[in-house]
Specification:
This protein has 279 residues and is mainly alpha-helical. It contains 12 helices and 5 strands.
Length: 279
């Protein structure tokens, strides 16, 4: 192969350099597009009603970012020392979703990846802004040397492009599988129960039940309602809106946290009691 290159006429050698410059610039553009897709979709969180807007905002934010900024975010997303757990609000007002995708590596591998990516950013900037002055287009030898450097660079960029494409393919596949699961009734039932269990209302009811010990571990539901009206009146006021239930007992049954009983009052009526589920 070297013999063939060395025998290139000067005009052919110069044109081949220009062709390989264009090829490498396209490879760097592919790498940049893949990085934008990964950075904008690998981590997403928010309330279900805000998720679409949050995703659109992230996609918009990366459109004008430089290659260096994209690489910095990608490297930081995969930092083994970074806390990968999303901070969710303490008091959930609706379903909160958090999605995160990252490559799990050790510190040494992460350091090597950072060095490779930083090097490629420098090579990309050099190719676009400073490459032409580095070779003599009137010299066959200079053109051939430039071709070899461009081929070596292309191999490095292709490797990263293929890696990013594989990661993005796996990410999109996972997101589709998650979306498919989220369309099932089992998932909607699970979310409804989970949301009810983590609600402020369920927390208050649980605290009241935990305060009861021994044989007298039942809580009178009407007494609990009185306490809730003092502590968090809006929870009962918005019972239907937040949990789809008109009665507190129906909401409590959704949580599957409690069991119920009835007892006769001194006046001959009945009252509802509850305690934490013993099963």
């Amino acid at each position: 192969m070297d013999t063939t290159i060395n025998e290139q006429p000067i005009e052919e050698a110069k044109n081949e350099v220009l062709r390989k410059i264009g090829r490498n610039m396209l490879l760097f553009q592919q790498m940049e597009l893949l990085l934008k897709a990964l950075v904008s979709t690998s981590n997403l969180s928010g309330y279900s009603s805000e998720l679409g807007a949050n995703q659109a905002s992230k996609i918009k934010s990366v459109k004008t970012q430089t290659m260096g900024q994209l690489v910095g975010q990608y490297i930081e997303n995969n930092n083994p020392d970074k806390n990968k757990i999303s901070d969710e609000p303490e008091d959930l007002k609706e379903i909160y979703i958090s999605f995160s995708c990252y490559i799990e590596t050790d510190e040494e591998t992460h350091k090597q990846q950072k060095e490779v990516m930083s090097s490629l950013v420098k090579e990309r900037n050099n190719l676009i802004h400073h490459f032409l002055p580095t070779f003599d287009h009137t010299s066959t030898g200079s053109c051939i040397d430039a071709q070899k450097r461009l081929d070596k660079q292309a191999d490095k960029v292709r490797l990263e492009v293929n890696n990013f494409r594989a990661i993005l393919t796996a990410l999109n596949k996972s997101k589709k599988e998650i979306a498919d699961v989220m369309q099932t009734k089992q998932y909607s039932d699970f979310i409804e129960v989970s949301f009810a269990q983590q609600s402020p209302l369920a927390n208050i009811l649980t605290e009241l039940a935990q305060a009861k010990t021994g044989e007298h571990d039942w809580v009178v539901l009407n007494e609990a309602i009185c306490i809730i009206n003092k502590k968090a009146p809006s929870e009962l006021k918005n019972l239907k809106q937040n949990h789809g239930s008109k009665k507190l007992k129906n909401m409590m049954m959704k949580t599957k946290l409690f069991e119920f009983s009835e007892e006769e009052t001194a006046k001959g009526g009945n009252r509802v009691l509850y305690r934490l589920n013993q099963g």
